[in-house]
Amino acid sequence: MVKIIASFLLGAASVTAFLWHSASSLMFSERVSPFGVEETVARIQENMQNAGNGWSLSGLRNAAKPIQKDGGNVLPVLMVEGCSTRYSGPILKDDSLRFLSILMPCKVSVYKKSDGKVY
To answer: How many alpha carbons lie under 13 Å from residue 45 in its C-beta half-sphere?
Structure first.
């Protein structure tokens, strides 16, 4: 009986560790851009507008601005916000799914790191 319980716990711990490790790569992806911050943002906005499937731009937010306004010195961070009616429509129409609106709009963050590269 002890072997069964130990095997179960070891299996559960292994699955949990695997999911914990791989879940972040399923949600987030970081890629180096060959362009500067402004051009990267412009290209993402253009691609979003031309994507079809109901995609449209919702906004552009400068996440570094409040910190810079308070005198802080941070590298640029711009967030391109877009939304697709194909995905948002069903969420907003269904009361049981409306809580997922916190995930809207879709955000693509463009930022510069201290290595000088844009991501």
So the answer is: 16
Which is nearest to 76 in space by CA: 48, 114, 30?
114
Q: Please, what is the average pLDDT of the chain?
A: 86
- Residue 103 — very low, low, confident or very high, per pLDDT cuts 50/70/90? confident
d(CA 108, CA 31): 11
The conformational region for residue 72 under phi > 0 = left, psi -120 to 50 = alpha, else beta, is: beta
Instruction: List beta partners, residue 70.
Output: none
> What six digits make up the tokens of 77?
């961070």
- Give the tokens for residue 99: 């809580």
Contacts of residue 47, Cβ cutoff 8 Å, sequence gap at least 6: none
* Alpha carbons 12 and 16: distance in angstroms, whole number: 6
Q: What's the pTM?
A: 0.70
Q: What is the DSSP letter of 71?
A: T
